[in-house]
Amino acid sequence: MCWGHSPSVNQDYKFDVGTFTLNGPLTMTNECPMTVQCVIQVTGTGLAATNKLRAQASADACGTGSAISGYTDATVDAIGASGSNDQFDMGTATAGVAGTGFHLCWAHDSTYLSRRALRS
Length: 120
Known about the structure:
The chain is mainly beta and 120 residues long. The chain has one domain. 0% of the residues lie in helices and 31% in strands. The protein is built from no helices and 10 strands. The chain has strands spanning 2-3, 15-16, 24-25, 37-41, 44-45, 52-57, 75-77, 87-92, 102-107, 116-118. Strands 7-6-9-10 form a 4-stranded antiparallel beta sheet, with no helix packed on it. A two-stranded antiparallel ribbon has the order 1-2. Strands 3-5 form a two-stranded antiparallel ribbon. The protein starts with a strand and ends with a strand.
């Protein structure tokens, strides 16, 4: 991370003041067949046991819509083995309409559920 006193152009940022890490999953595409258990594995930085994942309609921005119906778990916790926190058991879609009009929303914890969209 760079700092500059009263910067007006890029060259004014002359001082290295540390590093910056943006934690969260990478954007990805997933597919889950109906009537089959859906486990989604995410790749990212700083994933934690408090992470949540939710599938919702693509028309709704993450943080504003409702979870799609049909899955046994509408909002799911990380279930990663050995503390990896990178797997989410979405359950099994037992109802609803198959299609591509959905996206996955990720949150660091349930307080801020679904601030980041992952493609699906």
